[in-house]
């Protein structure tokens, strides 16, 4: 129920990515006057460049002990899935130290359960929100494939059981059964896991723009500006700079929700928190040609994903640690083309210059969990650190954080995602 107080309360949502947009729509539906502020505008970052996969099957934290043995080989492989820029190595060490600690069995189990808590109804919440914004056609629910080329069958079965034992809807397929679903797959693929309940979007940017349009139609405002400072000493006070004319302004909303992604650390530090947030620089290659593919296909060995979209085919999946300011690395296009051709032989790689290479920033924490909800400042709330699952979790975390802001009963226990856990 919307109260009279809510009808007059003003909330600023900082960040116009998928997390900020879904949060703004949820708060707006509760009667708040909502303004979104973003330096570059709607979906200018990772929200437009992600793989477009609602990856609810990905329930395991990235901190896995086997990585300790695999990481050196990955780093030395020029076609490998992970890079650490040499000049960033020392700066990344504290993050990786925490990452290793989260490999401990008790922590890994705790983090797995917390991820499952978010994944359970994530696609349902996204479908509901997209339906209300008349853009449900942008969401395709045909599942996804994880394909294996050289992995021995016993190890494939082990992977299948890992997911099945955790309640993930998954089928074990032979290579031929996988090609019945996706005839364009290479004959080198020997086995596959078919995650039957996952989904993808035809265009993540269009989805964000549809949410933004609905938000504006319902009376919301989107301001293109950069938040410079937050003051909570007496009452909430925000200082920001307009992008168009560089004019400085002050404003005093009743509440603020920070959905600032990879740029969140400077604000949380200002608020008195030492959040171990770092940036995974993600890359994709967008090819303009469409291929006969019905669902996302991820390679187990190659660690990358191919997603069919309405304006072409997206190849994504590289992780690079290098901070927010280093220029884009070279050689990513070649990596995606080599791996893409191996999985989908008909993929047109003869004219790679027709493709568009993109880099964006993922906000990642060592425990693979986001930071959600209340802070020690009653007027300040947070929702960031969604790492590889920002698109997947956005609608659900928007609902959960809105429940906290409005003082309602929250659907799940928010303690695992609290900013106070660090």
TrEMBL record:
<dbReference type="InterPro" id="IPR006076">
    <property type="entry name" value="FAD-dep_OxRdtase"/>
</dbReference>
<dbReference type="GO" id="GO:0005737">
    <property type="term" value="C:cytoplasm"/>
</dbReference>
<dbReference type="GO" id="GO:0016491">
    <property type="term" value="F:oxidoreductase activity"/>
</dbReference>
<feature type="domain" description="FAD dependent oxidoreductase">
    <location>
        <begin position="11"/>
        <end position="403"/>
    </location>
</feature>
<dbReference type="Pfam" id="PF01266">
    <property type="entry name" value="DAO"/>
</dbReference>
<protein>
    <submittedName>
        <fullName>FAD-binding oxidoreductase</fullName>
    </submittedName>
</protein>
<keyword id="KW-0560">Oxidoreductase</keyword>
<dbReference type="InterPro" id="IPR036188">
    <property type="entry name" value="FAD/NAD-bd_sf"/>
</dbReference>
């Amino acid at each position: 129920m919307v109260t009279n107080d809510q009808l007059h309360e003003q909330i600023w949502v900082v960040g116009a990515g998928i997390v900020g947009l879904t949060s703004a729509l949820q708060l707006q539906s509760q009667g708040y006057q909502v303004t979104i502020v973003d330096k570059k505008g709607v979906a200018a970052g990772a929200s437009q460049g992600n793989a477009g996969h609602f990856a609810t099957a990905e329930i395991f934290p990235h901190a896995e002990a086997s990585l300790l043995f695999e990481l050196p080989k990955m780093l030395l492989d020029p076609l490998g899935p992970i890079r650490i820029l040499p000049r960033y190595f020392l700066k990344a060490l504290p993050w990786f130290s925490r990452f290793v600690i989260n490999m401990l069995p008790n922590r890994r189990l705790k983090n797995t359960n917390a991820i499952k808590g978010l994944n359970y109804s994530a696609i349902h919440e996204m479908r509901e929100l997209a339906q209300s914004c008349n853009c449900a056609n942008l969401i395709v629910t045909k599942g996804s494939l994880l394909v294996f080329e050289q992995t021995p069958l016993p190890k494939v079965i082990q992977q299948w059981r890992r997911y099945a034992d955790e309640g993930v809807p998954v089928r074990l397929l032979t290579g031929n059964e996988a090609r019945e679903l996706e005839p364009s797959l290479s004959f080198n693929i020997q086995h596959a896991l078919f995650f039957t309940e996952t989904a993808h979007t035809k265009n993540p940017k269009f989805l964000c723009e549809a949410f933004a349009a609905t938000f504006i139609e319902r009376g919301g405002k989107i301001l293109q500006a950069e938040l410079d400072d937050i003051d909570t000493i007496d009452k909430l006070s925000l200082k920001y700079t307009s992008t168009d004319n560089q004019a400085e302004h002050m404003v005093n909303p009743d509440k603020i929700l920070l959905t600032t992604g990879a740029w969140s650390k400077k604000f949380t530090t200002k608020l008195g928190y030492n959040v171990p947030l770092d940036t995974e620089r993600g890359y994709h290659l967008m090819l303009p040609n469409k291929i006969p593919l019905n669902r996302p296909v991820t390679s187990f060995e190659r660690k990358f994903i191919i997603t069919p979209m309405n304006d072409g085919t997206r190849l994504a999946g590289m992780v690079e640690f290098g901070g927010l300011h280093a220029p884009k690395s070279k050689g990513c296009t070649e990596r995606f083309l080599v791996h893409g051709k191996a999985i989908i032989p008909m993929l047109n790689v003869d004219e790679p210059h027709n493709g568009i290479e993109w880099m964006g920033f993922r906000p990642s924490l060592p425990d693979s969990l986001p930071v959600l909800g209340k802070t020690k400042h009653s007027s300040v709330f947070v929702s960031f650190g969604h790492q590889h699952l920002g698109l997947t979790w956005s609608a659900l975390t928007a609902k959960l954080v809105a429940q906290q802001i409005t003082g309602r009963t929250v659907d799940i226990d928010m303690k695992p995602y609290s900013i106070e856990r660090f």
